[in-house]
């Protein structure tokens, strides 16, 4: 059951729980808008990753996960039970944890126009049932006694999970989301990939130019910052990593709207990079594949056969996906 009043930043503490399995509901009142701002922006961020997302109610909280079709980008938003006014996950010997996979096309329209919803909705309730219907029910209790009910059918699926040990990354950056947003705003929405370069003297972000394109007709953009601009700067080794920008924009918008700092854990080219935000009641991360050194240099120095190393990604009890082309590197789940 979803709440919205701030405990630390924008969420109210839990006040109780319903005795109904897998049901979540927010408070009545004017503060409902803050719930939609957080939960809705999480859905919007996941829509930039893939066409499907996983709804996973656990004892640690409600997890929303998504992965792109090429398995080169993964995102997860974990809302703690403290995020909800009432949070109840089915318990008992006959209770089986739900692992729901829903179509993004059926969920995104509910949270697309957040401004309009914030003005008209007083309460939201989400419940999951797998007894006979296999559906997720979303009820919006609006003003003037209007109730909107949406029944979304889901497909039971294995839990989606990426294995990424951030403490093993030699490099780490942390700064306000606004700083990253100011850097990204200089790149057009059509820009697919960018290169992040770090050294002891500067941190730069520039657009990536693929091999075969006419570089004379492209606008080259590069932003550079001194390490002192960051709240935390830890550099184990110089690196140049190239990753997709589209999947990252949603997380940056979420972090900026709630004034949350963004942390970046990364290593050398060819290894995944992790962007994450963390608050008292919500955690979010986006893990992106990066190009290998030979792929990054191919823009100026074409190379022959390109090889990739496989990072450690998996989905429990899930088969390995088919081999993908080496650009970008494939993340394994």
From TrEMBL:
Its EC number is 3.1.11.2. It is found in: Nucleus. Residues 318-333 have a biased composition (Pro residues). GO terms for cellular component: checkpoint clamp complex. The keyword Nucleus applies. GO terms for biological process: cellular response to ionizing radiation; DNA repair; DNA replication checkpoint signaling; mitotic intra-S DNA damage checkpoint signaling. It catalyses: Exonucleolytic cleavage in the 3'- to 5'-direction to yield nucleoside 5'-phosphates. GO terms for molecular function: double-stranded DNA 3'-5' DNA exonuclease activity. The keyword Transferase does not apply. InterPro entries: DNA_clamp_sf (IPR046938), Rad9 (IPR026584), Rad9/Ddc1 (IPR007268). The gene is rad9b. Component of the 9-1-1 cell-cycle checkpoint response complex that plays a major role in DNA repair. The 9-1-1 complex is recruited to DNA lesion upon damage by the RAD17-replication factor C (RFC) clamp loader complex. Acts then as a sliding clamp platform on DNA for several proteins involved in long-patch base excision repair (LP-BER). Pfam families: Rad9. This is Cell cycle checkpoint control protein RAD9A. Residues 297-333 are annotated as: Disordered. Keywords: DNA damage, Exonuclease, Hydrolase, Nuclease, Nucleus, Phosphoprotein. Belongs to the rad9 family. Residues 297-310 have a biased composition (Polar residues).
């Amino acid at each position: 059951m979803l709440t919205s009043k701030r405990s630390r930043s924008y969420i109210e503490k839990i006040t109780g729980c319903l005795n109904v399995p897998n049901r979540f509901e927010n408070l009545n009142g004017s503060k409902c808008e803050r719930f939609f701002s957080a939960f809705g922006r999480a859905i919007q961020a996941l829509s930039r990753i893939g066409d499907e997302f996983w709804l996973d109610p656990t004892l640690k909280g409600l997890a929303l996960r998504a992965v792109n079709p090429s398995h080169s980008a993964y995102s997860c938003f974990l809302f703690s039970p403290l995020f909800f006014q009432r949070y109840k996950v089915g318990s008992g010997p006959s209770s089986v944890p739900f692992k729901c996979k829903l179509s993004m096309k059926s969920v995104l329209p509910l949270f697309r126009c957040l401004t309009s919803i914030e003005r008209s909705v007083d309460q939201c309730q989400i419940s999951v049932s797998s007894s006979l219907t296999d559906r997720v029910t979303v009820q919006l209790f609006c003003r003037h006694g209007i109730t909107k009910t949406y029944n979304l059918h889901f497909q039971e699926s294995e839990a989606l999970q990426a294995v990424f040990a951030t403490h093993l990354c030699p490099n780490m950056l942390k700064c306000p989301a606004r700083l990253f947003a100011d850097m990204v705003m200089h790149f057009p929405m059509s820009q697919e990939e960018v290169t992040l370069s770090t050294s002891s003297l500067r941190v730069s972000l520039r657009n990536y130019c693929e091999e075969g394109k006419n570089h004379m007709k492209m606008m080259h953009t590069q932003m550079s910052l001194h390490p002192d601009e960051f709240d935390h700067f830890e550099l184990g080794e110089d690196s140049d990593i190239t990753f997709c920008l589209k999947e990252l924009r949603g997380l940056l918008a979420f972090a900026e709207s709630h004034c949350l700092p963004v942390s970046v854990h990364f290593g050398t080219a060819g290894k995944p990079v992790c962007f994450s935000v963390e608050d008292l009641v919500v955690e979010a991360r986006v893990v992106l594949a990066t190009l290998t050194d030979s792929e990054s240099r191919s823009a100026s120095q074409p190379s022959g056969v390109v090889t990739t190393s496989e990072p450690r990604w998996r989905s429990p009890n899930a088969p390995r996906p088919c081999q993908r082309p080496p650009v970008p590197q494939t993340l394994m789940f």
